[in-house]
Amino acid sequence: MKIGILGAGRMGRGLAELLGKAGHEVVVGSRMPGRSSFPAVSLNHAITRSEVVFIALPHTAIEPNAELLATVTPDTVVVDLANGVRVEDGRIRSVLERPHGRWVADLLPQARVVRAFTHVPDELLVSRAVRQPNTWAIAVAADDAGALAIVSELVRSAGYVPVPVGDLNHSAVLDPGGPLFPNMYLPGDMCDLLDRQGA
After folding, report:
1. Is 181 in contact with 187 (CB distance < 8 Å)?
2. Which helix (H) or strand (E) element contains residue 80?
3. How many helices (H) and strands (E) does the chain have?
């Protein structure tokens, strides 16, 4: 597939490496492509040439780029992996009062938003996939069954096992403060944890 990854940080670069090795045509978009140490194009170029767009930008960069993000064509699959993190009383929490995936879907009503790759520590993304392929779980949430299927296949392409966890209204389990964040699980362990949480 033609994939655009918005954000040239560790998660964006890691996904580009994994999905590129799997045979997908991947470009990485940066807010400052000329200053990136990784080959990158503009965010606009990454959006306009892609069938699937990954938002790997910092949470704080999403609203300032909302007008640009709104140019994604109708029915484009948009994968939200950004996290708005705050620390309260020594605990990780989300900066939002609603699930991050629902927040992005409300910003981009024309898109088919999927929440995935949010609970993976960035320093483990590539190493776990390369050293132990098809072993570790990635939780995936979406309202659209077709978009969920597309992203689940991309999760497999990246070397992980997709575990659907419900729609975007129930995707807070992937967010900061949720039971999955910021850890990695085997598929069975993830399902057991979510069952115990009643998620």
Report:
1. no
2. strand 77-80
3. 7, 10
How many angstroms separate the CA atoms of 127 and 136, rounded? 11
C-alpha 63/C-alpha 77 separation (Å) is 19
In the block, tokens 């954000």 appear at 7
Burial of 10 by CB count in 10 Å (0-12 exposed, 13-18 middle, 19+ buried)? Answer: middle
Please say whether the dihedral angle defined by the alpha carbons of residues 113, 119, 120 and 123, taken in this order, is positive or negative.
positive
Q: What is the pLDDT of residues 53-112, one digit of tens each?
A: 999 999 999 999 999 999 999 999 999 999 999 999 999 999 999 999 999 999 999 999
The encoded tokens of residue 160 equal: 């992980």
DSSP 111: S
Entry field: residues in the chain: 199
**Domains annotated on the chain, with CATH:** 2-197 (3.40.50.720)
- Whole-angstrom distance, CA of residue 97 vs CA of residue 32: 30
